[in-house]
Amino acid sequence: MTELRIARTAHTADLDAATLEAARTLLFDVFDDMTEEDWEHALGGIHALVYEDGELIGHSSVVRRHLVHGGRALRCGYVEGVGVRTDHRGRGHGAAMMNALERVIRGAYDFGALGADREVARFYTRRGWQLWRGSSWALTPAGIRRTPDEDGSLYVLPTAATPLDLDADLTCDWREGDVW
Prior knowledge:
Helix content: 10-25%
Strand content: 35-45%
Number of helices: 4
Largest sheet: 10 strands, mixed
Distance between the termini: 39 Å
């Protein structure tokens, strides 16, 4: 019988090169559209890693971003790189990783956010994540730009300390690659 557990949550700085490479390889295997920029987006925060029989089979991370809502720049715990090896899905690994990340979000950030395809959106909404109904924007080097392709795929995890108007505009900070 295999053992399900979060082997560790750790900051990127506390993960050795072999663990980081295993996580990178896992995400590139799980997602056929994964890019180096996507991998970079998953670094610099807290990682939740799941192992089965000593092998890394799941990765997720939460990184700090600033998102503008209601005229305020809020500290956002942005979830990146959530992936479970295909042959290990449906066993609670994703939920175990999200439990760890949601604890971090609730304890350290004004709210959480993530981008999700419609195929996996139900996983997040069952956990209390809410669809952002307002317009999405990005602060780019050329100014604030509308990101209409992201509308309908952004989800937030409100915290008790920060009320959110889900119908308002939401603007993310700039980064290379996919801004959301």
